[in-house]
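[AMINO ACID CHAIN]
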Amino acid sequence: MIKGAIFDVDGTLLNSMPVWENLGELYLRSLGIEAEPGLGEELSAMSLPQGADYLISHYHLAKTRSRVLEGINQEVRDFYAKKVPLKAGVRDFLEGLREHKIPMVIVTTSDRKNIEAALKRLGILNYFDRVLTCTEMGTDKNRPDIYLAASLQLDTEPSETLVFEDAYHAVVTAKKAGFRVAAVYDKANDSNLGKIWNTADIYLSEFSDFDMFWRRVSKG
């Protein structure tokens, strides 16, 4: 029986992956510069500082790395505060869990201020008891620390806690730590779709038909 739920945010609750995939293009557009095709793919393997250096050299920007990073971070803050949408069906799904008295906690690799700004604007922050961030904990989702910390907040055992994630590495980490995992479809993870499907306990192509979902998880 499920007694608690842990939710990732980016790609799970929010349709936010496009901003990360197109961050360089969005930043250049703010400067009135048209990005070359394939910039997102070029930057995808780089850290943010490396990406900033690439933009400076390739697009001949008369800016320091710190100024470029600040501009990029401002694009991210604006996106979360003003634009990022919920995935379809999320609010009704969370309401269903609340009606069944399932406590919920957020675990995210993103910045707390950005996440809280988005969830507050979208009217769902109050569904969650806590927001835990990898940055504040000094960890990442290749390690189970943040999931275990969330289960302590929920006062539930991993085996009775359902983790909602979209990324394959996070699904694997939660499973290895003993959690039940509901994988949520996001286009950004299409390359790992088969592995995600085979690893997770439940696969959600979308947040719909909560009653059917609840019947499935209640069997365990």
About this structure: The chain has a mean pLDDT of 93. The chain has twelve helices and six strands. The two ends are 5 Å apart (CA to CA).
